[in-house]
Amino acid sequence: MKTEAWTRAVRGQLDLGRLLPLGGPDDGSWITEQAAVRALWPTAADIPGVRLGRMRIGAAPHEPVAEPAVRPPASALPPGPLRIEAAFTASLTQPVQQAAEQLRTTLLDGAAERLGLTAVAVDLSLTDLHEGPEESPSKAPPARSSASSAEREPLRGPGGELADVASAVPGVARLTAPLGGRPVRVEEQDDPPGRHVQIQLAVAPGHHPLEVARAVRTAVTAVPTGDTRGPATVAVLVTEVAA
User: Fold this and answer.
1) What does each of the 243 residues of the chain score in pLDDT, given as a tens digit?
2) Are residues 182 and 108 in the same domain?
3) Same-domain status, 124 and 153
4) What is the pTM for the complete model shown?
5) Which CATH number do you get for residue 49?
6) Any residues with CB less than 8 A from the CB of 187 and at least 6 apart, and which?
7) Which residues contact 117 (CB under 8 A, 6 or more apart)?
């Protein structure tokens, strides 16, 4: 049974992809690569003749990174510039270079404006050319495993109170637990001394992921900890951005 649970956890992490930094080192927020890709995908829908293929987002090579202000989720990328890699097909009726530049600009702007990602480069691969208009591109990438909602059983102890506070923040669609764990994790830490909280959540339609994550961190940090060693530190992981 333990082996099966471990296998499910690994598969879930692979589906979620990399954990990408949202904002800067002081924001204490991350987003799953899967959620970021699904949010960016529709931005290319209006580019004539272009259809997106596989997309990945990761750290931009040879760029400096910063130490996050709070403890990051396990295996999360440190705050720093990101690179988007995308494959696409284009129409013979449109200049390919023009389509590529439009796609590059669209993805860079979308990453910053829709999500709060610091993307500095887009590497594009042209995989095919087609004649005339193609069927309308999908507004969502191929389906992959989605982040599971938090368990319906109420959380007890400090995690339950913090879950209520986080859920009440405008823009939070729901708390999530994509790897089967709890959506709110509370741990004691020594550096800095006090309590560390990690919250996993989905962002509601029409809300900016980085702004929601910042608001959640502010709300949860304000909850009294009862720990005289210092205030709580809070990290937020966005696992879904609802369309």
Assistant:
1) 434 443 344 444 447 999 999 999 999 999 999 999 999 999 998 898 899 999 999 999 999 999 999 999 999 999 999 999 999 999 988 899 999 999 999 999 999 999 999 999 999 999 999 875 555 455 567 655 455 555 444 454 557 889 999 999 999 999 999 856 789 999 888 777 788 999 999 999 999 999 999 999 999 999 887 665 566 899 999 999 998
2) no
3) no
4) 0.86
5) 3.30.70.1350
6) 195, 196, 197, 198
7) 20, 21, 22, 31, 36, 57, 82, 111
